[in-house]
Amino acid sequence: MRALLSPDPDDFPCGCLVVSGIDEPGNRLILYANHYVSEQFGFAAEGLVGSPLSGMLSRASTVIFDVYVLPTVLHEGRCSEVLLELQTPTGSKCPVVVNARRHSTDQTLIVLSLFDATQRDTLYQELVETRRLLEEKASILQHLSSTDELTGLLNRRELNKRAAIMLAEARRYETSVAVLVVDIDHFKELNDTLGHAGGDKILAELGKRFREQGRATDIVARYGGEEFVFVVPKMDEFRVRQLAQRLHKVASEVPVPGKVLTVSIGIGLTHSRDDFLYETLFMRADKALYAAKAAGRDRSLFFDVDAQDVGERVIDLLPSS
Protein backbone atom coordinates (compact mmCIF):
# COMPACT_ATOMS: atom_id res chain seq x y z
CA MET A 1 0.00 0.00 0.00
CA ARG A 2 1.35 3.40 -0.94
CA ALA A 3 1.82 5.76 2.00
CA LEU A 4 0.13 9.13 1.60
CA LEU A 5 1.72 12.39 2.51
CA SER A 6 -0.08 14.50 5.08
CA PRO A 7 -2.83 16.29 3.15
CA ASP A 8 -2.92 20.04 2.89
CA PRO A 9 -6.06 21.59 4.46
CA ASP A 10 -6.63 23.34 1.13
CA ASP A 11 -7.30 19.93 -0.40
CA PHE A 12 -10.35 19.28 1.78
CA PRO A 13 -13.84 20.03 0.32
CA CYS A 14 -14.90 22.01 3.35
CA GLY A 15 -13.96 25.19 5.12
CA CYS A 16 -11.29 24.91 7.79
CA LEU A 17 -10.79 27.57 10.45
CA VAL A 18 -8.61 27.82 13.52
CA VAL A 19 -9.93 30.30 16.09
CA SER A 20 -8.24 31.70 19.16
CA GLY A 21 -9.28 33.74 22.16
CA ILE A 22 -11.65 31.34 23.91
CA ASP A 23 -11.56 33.58 26.97
CA GLU A 24 -12.75 36.61 25.03
CA PRO A 25 -16.48 36.22 24.25
CA GLY A 26 -17.53 37.85 20.98
CA ASN A 27 -13.94 38.59 19.97
CA ARG A 28 -12.50 35.28 18.87
CA LEU A 29 -9.86 35.87 16.22
CA ILE A 30 -9.37 33.76 13.10
CA LEU A 31 -5.80 32.46 12.99
CA TYR A 32 -6.12 30.23 9.92
CA ALA A 33 -8.54 29.77 7.00
CA ASN A 34 -8.10 27.39 4.08
CA HIS A 35 -8.83 28.25 0.44
CA TYR A 36 -12.34 26.74 0.54
CA VAL A 37 -13.52 29.56 2.84
CA SER A 38 -12.59 32.23 0.32
CA GLU A 39 -13.49 30.27 -2.81
CA GLN A 40 -16.86 28.96 -1.60
CA PHE A 41 -18.05 31.82 0.59
CA GLY A 42 -16.29 34.80 -1.03
CA PHE A 43 -14.15 35.92 1.90
CA ALA A 44 -10.77 37.41 0.91
CA ALA A 45 -8.06 35.21 2.42
CA GLU A 46 -5.84 38.14 3.35
CA GLY A 47 -8.68 39.82 5.20
CA LEU A 48 -9.73 36.83 7.28
CA VAL A 49 -6.62 36.05 9.33
CA GLY A 50 -6.53 38.27 12.38
CA SER A 51 -10.18 39.31 12.04
CA PRO A 52 -12.88 38.35 14.58
CA LEU A 53 -15.04 35.28 13.91
CA SER A 54 -18.11 37.39 14.65
CA GLY A 55 -17.39 39.30 11.45
CA MET A 56 -18.19 36.16 9.45
CA LEU A 57 -21.33 35.16 11.35
CA SER A 58 -24.77 36.66 11.47
CA ARG A 59 -25.71 38.23 14.81
CA ALA A 60 -27.90 35.27 15.77
CA SER A 61 -25.20 32.77 14.88
CA THR A 62 -22.63 34.70 16.93
CA VAL A 63 -24.90 34.31 19.94
CA ILE A 64 -25.37 30.58 19.24
CA PHE A 65 -21.62 30.14 18.97
CA ASP A 66 -20.98 31.92 22.27
CA VAL A 67 -23.76 30.38 24.33
CA TYR A 68 -23.83 26.85 22.88
CA VAL A 69 -20.94 25.85 20.63
CA LEU A 70 -18.11 27.20 22.77
CA PRO A 71 -19.43 25.92 26.15
CA THR A 72 -19.98 22.48 24.60
CA VAL A 73 -16.44 22.42 23.20
CA LEU A 74 -14.99 23.50 26.55
CA HIS A 75 -16.98 20.88 28.43
CA GLU A 76 -16.93 17.93 26.05
CA GLY A 77 -14.00 18.75 23.78
CA ARG A 78 -16.16 18.88 20.63
CA CYS A 79 -19.49 20.02 19.23
CA SER A 80 -21.06 18.46 16.13
CA GLU A 81 -23.46 19.46 13.36
CA VAL A 82 -24.60 22.91 14.41
CA LEU A 83 -26.35 24.95 11.75
CA LEU A 84 -25.01 28.51 11.65
CA GLU A 85 -25.32 31.33 9.17
CA LEU A 86 -22.46 33.18 7.49
CA GLN A 87 -22.78 36.83 6.56
CA THR A 88 -20.89 36.88 3.25
CA PRO A 89 -19.03 39.93 1.88
CA THR A 90 -21.77 40.42 -0.72
CA GLY A 91 -24.35 40.83 2.03
CA SER A 92 -26.06 37.51 1.43
CA LYS A 93 -26.47 34.85 4.08
CA CYS A 94 -25.21 31.31 3.67
CA PRO A 95 -26.20 28.40 5.92
CA VAL A 96 -23.32 26.20 7.05
CA VAL A 97 -23.03 23.05 9.13
CA VAL A 98 -20.26 23.54 11.69
CA ASN A 99 -18.27 20.94 13.60
CA ALA A 100 -15.93 22.22 16.31
CA ARG A 101 -13.30 20.74 18.61
CA ARG A 102 -10.31 21.80 20.64
CA HIS A 103 -6.97 21.87 18.85
CA SER A 104 -5.10 18.62 19.45
CA THR A 105 -1.89 20.33 20.65
CA ASP A 106 -3.02 23.79 21.79
CA GLN A 107 -6.15 23.53 23.95
CA THR A 108 -6.69 27.29 23.78
CA LEU A 109 -7.46 27.02 20.07
CA ILE A 110 -10.67 25.83 18.41
CA VAL A 111 -10.68 24.03 15.06
CA LEU A 112 -13.82 24.48 12.95
CA SER A 113 -15.03 22.73 9.82
CA LEU A 114 -17.68 24.49 7.70
CA PHE A 115 -19.83 22.67 5.14
CA ASP A 116 -21.96 24.69 2.76
CA ALA A 117 -25.57 23.75 3.58
CA THR A 118 -27.26 25.86 0.91
CA GLN A 119 -28.31 22.86 -1.15
CA ARG A 120 -29.32 20.91 1.93
CA ASP A 121 -31.33 23.87 3.15
CA THR A 122 -33.03 24.18 -0.24
CA LEU A 123 -33.86 20.48 -0.25
CA TYR A 124 -35.17 20.75 3.30
CA GLN A 125 -37.43 23.64 2.34
CA GLU A 126 -38.65 21.63 -0.65
CA LEU A 127 -39.38 18.71 1.65
CA VAL A 128 -41.23 20.99 4.05
CA GLU A 129 -43.29 22.39 1.18
CA THR A 130 -43.94 18.91 -0.19
CA ARG A 131 -45.06 17.76 3.22
CA ARG A 132 -47.35 20.77 3.55
CA LEU A 133 -48.92 20.03 0.16
CA LEU A 134 -49.37 16.35 1.06
CA GLU A 135 -50.98 17.25 4.38
CA GLU A 136 -53.22 19.73 2.59
CA LYS A 137 -54.28 17.11 0.04
CA ALA A 138 -54.78 14.54 2.80
CA SER A 139 -57.00 17.02 4.63
CA ILE A 140 -59.01 17.61 1.45
CA LEU A 141 -59.36 13.86 0.90
CA GLN A 142 -60.41 13.39 4.51
CA HIS A 143 -62.99 16.14 4.12
CA LEU A 144 -64.30 14.62 0.89
CA SER A 145 -64.48 11.15 2.42
CA SER A 146 -66.55 12.38 5.38
CA THR A 147 -68.67 15.11 3.78
CA ASP A 148 -71.72 15.11 1.55
CA GLU A 149 -70.68 17.01 -1.57
CA LEU A 150 -74.04 18.66 -2.22
CA THR A 151 -74.91 19.98 1.25
CA GLY A 152 -71.53 20.19 2.98
CA LEU A 153 -72.94 18.15 5.87
CA LEU A 154 -71.44 14.92 7.15
CA ASN A 155 -72.18 11.86 5.04
CA ARG A 156 -73.73 8.62 6.29
CA ARG A 157 -70.42 6.87 6.96
CA GLU A 158 -69.09 9.73 9.08
CA LEU A 159 -72.47 10.05 10.79
CA ASN A 160 -72.39 6.41 11.88
CA LYS A 161 -68.81 6.70 13.15
CA ARG A 162 -69.28 9.89 15.15
CA ALA A 163 -72.69 8.92 16.48
CA ALA A 164 -71.29 5.66 17.88
CA ILE A 165 -68.59 7.64 19.70
CA MET A 166 -71.13 10.13 21.06
CA LEU A 167 -73.40 7.36 22.35
CA ALA A 168 -70.46 5.60 24.01
CA GLU A 169 -69.55 8.82 25.84
CA ALA A 170 -73.18 9.37 26.83
CA ARG A 171 -73.34 5.88 28.30
CA ARG A 172 -70.12 6.48 30.22
CA TYR A 173 -71.19 9.82 31.67
CA GLU A 174 -74.90 8.96 31.94
CA THR A 175 -76.10 11.81 29.74
CA SER A 176 -78.91 11.83 27.20
CA VAL A 177 -78.75 11.83 23.40
CA ALA A 178 -81.49 12.53 20.88
CA VAL A 179 -81.64 11.44 17.25
CA LEU A 180 -83.88 13.38 14.86
CA VAL A 181 -84.52 12.00 11.39
CA VAL A 182 -85.80 14.76 9.11
CA ASP A 183 -87.41 14.09 5.73
CA ILE A 184 -88.61 16.64 3.16
CA ASP A 185 -92.30 16.22 2.41
CA HIS A 186 -93.33 15.46 -1.20
CA PHE A 187 -89.76 15.79 -2.45
CA LYS A 188 -90.39 13.58 -5.47
CA GLU A 189 -93.04 16.03 -6.63
CA LEU A 190 -90.56 18.89 -6.22
CA ASN A 191 -88.01 17.02 -8.34
CA ASP A 192 -90.61 16.29 -11.01
CA THR A 193 -91.71 19.94 -11.08
CA LEU A 194 -88.38 21.75 -10.70
CA GLY A 195 -86.05 19.15 -12.18
CA HIS A 196 -83.13 17.51 -10.40
CA ALA A 197 -81.09 20.74 -10.50
CA GLY A 198 -83.92 22.55 -8.72
CA GLY A 199 -84.22 19.73 -6.20
CA ASP A 200 -80.47 19.81 -5.55
CA LYS A 201 -80.67 23.55 -4.95
CA ILE A 202 -83.34 23.00 -2.29
CA LEU A 203 -81.26 20.26 -0.63
CA ALA A 204 -78.15 22.45 -0.60
CA GLU A 205 -80.00 25.42 0.88
CA LEU A 206 -81.76 23.33 3.51
CA GLY A 207 -78.47 21.64 4.40
CA LYS A 208 -76.85 25.03 4.91
CA ARG A 209 -79.69 26.20 7.18
CA PHE A 210 -79.69 22.95 9.14
CA ARG A 211 -75.92 23.23 9.68
CA GLU A 212 -76.45 26.69 11.19
CA GLN A 213 -78.93 25.21 13.68
CA GLY A 214 -76.46 22.68 15.04
CA ARG A 215 -74.29 23.37 18.05
CA ALA A 216 -70.56 22.68 17.98
CA THR A 217 -71.18 19.37 19.77
CA ASP A 218 -74.03 18.27 17.48
CA ILE A 219 -73.79 15.90 14.54
CA VAL A 220 -75.66 17.11 11.46
CA ALA A 221 -75.62 14.84 8.43
CA ARG A 222 -77.34 14.08 5.18
CA TYR A 223 -78.41 10.48 5.47
CA GLY A 224 -79.27 10.15 1.81
CA GLY A 225 -81.76 11.48 -0.72
CA GLU A 226 -83.99 14.05 1.02
CA GLU A 227 -83.31 12.70 4.52
CA PHE A 228 -81.22 14.43 7.19
CA VAL A 229 -80.14 13.31 10.66
CA PHE A 230 -79.35 15.27 13.82
CA VAL A 231 -77.59 13.55 16.72
CA VAL A 232 -77.59 15.92 19.69
CA PRO A 233 -76.18 15.27 23.18
CA LYS A 234 -77.52 16.40 26.57
CA MET A 235 -81.07 17.00 25.37
CA ASP A 236 -84.28 16.45 27.32
CA GLU A 237 -87.70 16.27 25.70
CA PHE A 238 -88.40 19.98 26.11
CA ARG A 239 -85.21 21.06 24.35
CA VAL A 240 -85.70 18.47 21.62
CA ARG A 241 -89.14 19.97 21.01
CA GLN A 242 -87.59 23.42 20.67
CA LEU A 243 -85.01 22.11 18.20
CA ALA A 244 -87.68 20.38 16.12
CA GLN A 245 -89.73 23.58 16.02
CA ARG A 246 -86.72 25.50 14.73
CA LEU A 247 -86.13 22.89 12.03
CA HIS A 248 -89.71 23.16 10.84
CA LYS A 249 -89.38 26.93 10.77
CA VAL A 250 -86.08 27.10 8.85
CA ALA A 251 -87.42 24.55 6.34
CA SER A 252 -90.46 26.74 5.71
CA GLU A 253 -88.13 29.67 4.95
CA VAL A 254 -86.33 27.87 2.10
CA PRO A 255 -87.54 29.52 -1.11
CA VAL A 256 -89.55 27.08 -3.23
CA PRO A 257 -91.51 28.30 -6.26
CA GLY A 258 -95.25 28.10 -5.68
CA LYS A 259 -95.29 26.41 -2.27
CA VAL A 260 -93.99 26.29 1.30
CA LEU A 261 -91.42 23.62 2.07
CA THR A 262 -92.35 21.31 4.95
CA VAL A 263 -90.59 18.45 6.67
CA SER A 264 -91.55 15.50 8.83
CA ILE A 265 -89.42 14.58 11.83
CA GLY A 266 -89.07 11.39 13.86
CA ILE A 267 -87.37 11.59 17.23
CA GLY A 268 -85.66 8.97 19.37
CA LEU A 269 -84.45 9.95 22.83
CA THR A 270 -82.25 7.79 25.07
CA HIS A 271 -83.87 6.21 28.09
CA SER A 272 -82.17 5.34 31.36
CA ARG A 273 -82.62 1.61 30.63
CA ASP A 274 -81.16 1.86 27.14
CA ASP A 275 -77.97 0.17 26.00
CA PHE A 276 -77.10 3.43 24.17
CA LEU A 277 -76.61 1.93 20.74
CA TYR A 278 -76.90 4.37 17.87
CA GLU A 279 -78.55 1.77 15.66
CA THR A 280 -81.34 1.35 18.23
CA LEU A 281 -81.87 5.08 18.61
CA PHE A 282 -81.91 5.65 14.85
CA MET A 283 -84.41 2.82 14.34
CA ARG A 284 -86.77 4.43 16.85
CA ALA A 285 -86.47 7.84 15.20
CA ASP A 286 -87.01 6.29 11.78
CA LYS A 287 -90.19 4.54 12.95
CA ALA A 288 -91.43 7.83 14.39
CA LEU A 289 -90.68 9.53 11.07
CA TYR A 290 -92.81 7.06 9.13
CA ALA A 291 -95.61 7.54 11.65
CA ALA A 292 -95.36 11.32 11.17
CA LYS A 293 -95.62 10.83 7.41
CA ALA A 294 -98.64 8.57 7.84
CA ALA A 295 -100.26 11.11 10.18
CA GLY A 296 -100.28 13.78 7.48
CA ARG A 297 -96.68 15.05 7.33
CA ASP A 298 -95.44 18.50 8.44
CA ARG A 299 -95.12 17.33 12.03
CA SER A 300 -92.76 15.71 14.54
CA LEU A 301 -93.35 12.56 16.59
CA PHE A 302 -91.46 10.94 19.44
CA PHE A 303 -90.90 7.22 19.74
CA ASP A 304 -92.50 6.11 23.01
CA VAL A 305 -89.97 3.85 24.73
CA ASP A 306 -92.34 2.72 27.48
CA ALA A 307 -95.03 1.71 24.99
CA GLN A 308 -92.39 0.36 22.54
CA ASP A 309 -94.29 2.23 19.87
CA VAL A 310 -94.60 5.69 18.42
CA GLY A 311 -96.17 8.00 20.96
CA GLU A 312 -99.00 10.31 20.03
CA ARG A 313 -97.09 13.35 21.25
CA VAL A 314 -97.22 15.60 18.24
CA ILE A 315 -95.01 18.64 18.63
CA ASP A 316 -96.77 21.96 18.32
CA LEU A 317 -95.58 23.42 15.06
CA LEU A 318 -94.84 27.05 14.41
CA PRO A 319 -96.90 28.57 11.59
CA SER A 320 -95.41 27.86 8.18
CA SER A 321 -95.90 31.45 7.06
Provide an overview of this structure.
This protein is α+β, with helices and mostly antiparallel strands. The protein has 2 domains: 12-121, PAS domain (Beta-Lactamase), CATH 3.30.450; 147-314, Alpha-Beta Plaits (2-Layer Sandwich). The protein has 8 helices and 11 strands. The strands form 2 sheets. Strands 7-8-6-9-10-11 form a 6-stranded mixed β-sheet, sandwiched between helices. Helix 6 crosses helix 7. The longest helix is centred in the middle third of the chain and has 29 residues, at 118-146. It is elongated and about 100 Å long. It holds the Pfam family GGDEF. It catalyses: 2 GTP = 3',3'-c-di-GMP + 2 diphosphate.
Layout of helices and strands:
Blueprint: E1 15-19, E2 30-33, H1 35-41, H2 45-48, H3 59-76, E3 78-87, E4 93-102, E5 110-116, H4 118-146, H5 156-173, E6 177-184, H6 187-213, E7 219-224, E8 227-233, H7 237-252, E9 263-269, H8 278-294, E10 300-304, E11 309-314
Parallel strand pairs: 9-10
Antiparallel strand pairs: 1-2, 1-5, 3-4, 4-5, 6-8, 6-9, 7-8, 10-11
